[in-house]
Amino acid sequence: LHVLSVPTRDSQQQLTGRLWVVSDRTRERESDRLKDEFIGIVSHELRTPLTSILGYTEILLNRQDLDYESQREFLQTVSNEAERLFKMVKDLLDVSRLEAGVVKLNRWAVGLWQVIEELTLQLHTQLIHHKLLIDARTPLPPVFADRDKVKQIIFNLLSNAIKYSPEGSEIQLTVRRANADDLPATHPPGQWMLIVVRDEGIGIKPEDQARLFERFQRVDNSNTRQKSGVGLGLYISRLLVELHGGRIWVKSVEGSGSSFSFTLPIWTAPANEQGQEP
Ligand code: ADP
Fold first, then answer.
1. How far is CA 73 from CA 117, 150, 205, in A?
2. Which of 22, 35, 49, 104 could pair covalently with 81 via S-S, beta carbons 3.0-4.6 A apart?
3. 237 Cβ closer than 6 Å to some ligand 1 atom
4. Per-residue model confidence (pLDDT) at position 270
5. 47 alpha carbon to ligand 1 midpoint, in Å?
6. What is the pTM of this model?
7. How far lies 133's CA from each of 96, 107, 111, 259, 271, in Å?
8. What is the dihedral angle through the alpha carbons of 202, 205, 206, 211, rounded to the nearest 10 degrees?
9. How far is Cα 232 from Cα 196, in angstroms, rounded to an integer?
């Protein structure tokens, strides 16, 4: 609590009493703390790829004796690091827009099968060291959702599964109609599609599981420290899922794998309309 005391005087400047202003600064202090934390994380995480980009371009510019192979290798690193920076900046912008409440969903009937096909093509190069198993019995009922946002959520979950599981292991993507016993007790009622991304990776301790959906939360261990990231992917995913009315949750056993699940409402056609994506 912040307490301010001011003497009060009458027109002759005689002391008449004291005015006490008591204000609760907890929220302000919490917001200052978040801002400091934000600047700390961002400056560190942005600096790492930038340092490497500057280092490698300097070598490429100054060393004429480099063979073609090494040049390619260095350029590949520059390109990967630039992509990492791009993704981080995009995540930061997404968070600030989501928190400001200015993100509007462009919702329609979306076929999940097509979304999955596009995503697997997009993630093709990252997926070459894993076995991706898709369990989706067609025809899938369409969901009432923003297509790009749905792609972004599944993309985040698949990238994490790739990032936090060993080469050669299996990643399973399941899409099906949710049964009542699939859903957490607090889930809103209705007709839902369930999307699950399961990996055989490092897993997450029970005490860390819930906070991963908060901003800037990363599990601090030697495995995650080696991987780049600012801890915004799951936070963004949660905000996007909740904007659609759904929920996202995780089940995981440390050392043997994780499965991230989320729900999206099934689209129901208005009596006089056929649901087609524009
Ligand atoms: P980032 O991956 O950028 O750190 P995320 O918000 O996507 O941010 O994830 C937050 C944290 O959750 C990660 O740092 C990691 O510790 C943990 N995590 C996410 N997905 C997985 C997974 N599939 N297996 C194990 N840990 C995970």
1. 30, 34, 37
2. 49
3. no
4. 77
5. 20
6. 0.82
7. 34, 28, 19, 14, 36
8. -90
9. 19
- Closest C-alpha to 160, from 254, 61, 29, 260: 260
Does residue 164 line the site of ligand 1, with CB under 6 A? yes
Give the residue among 267, 252, 270 at the shortest CA–CA distance from 108. 267
Q: How many CB atoms lie within 10 A of CB 81?
A: 20
140-144, 211-215, 258-262: the lowest-pLDDT one: 211-215
Query: Residues 145, 265: contact at Cβ < 8 Å?
Result: yes
Closest CA to 187 of 197, 196, 199, 179: 179
C-alpha span between 258 and 264 (Å, rounded): 20
The whole-angstrom separation of Cα 245 and Cα 252 is 24
pLDDT tens digits for 39-63?
787 788 888 889 999 999 999 999 9
pLDDT of residue 184: 93
Does ligand 1 come within 6 angstroms of the Cβ of 111? no
Instruction: Tell me if 202 CB under 6 Å of ligand 1.
Output: yes
- Phi, psi for residue 40 in degrees, rounded to 5: -60, -50
Q: Is 213 in the pocket of ligand 1 (CB under 6 A)?
A: no
User: By the 8 A CB rule, do 20 and 8 touch?
Assistant: no
pLDDT (tens digit per residue) in 176-222: 999 999 999 999 999 999 999 999 999 999 999 988 999 887 777 65
Q: Does residue 225 carry a pLDDT above 80?
A: no
Cα–Cα distance measured from residue 40 to residue 46, given in angstroms and rounded to the nearest whole number: 10
Q: How many CB atoms lie within 10 A of CB 241?
A: 22
20 burial level (CB within 10 Å; 0-12, 13-18, 19+): exposed
Strands 107-110 and 143-146: antiparallel
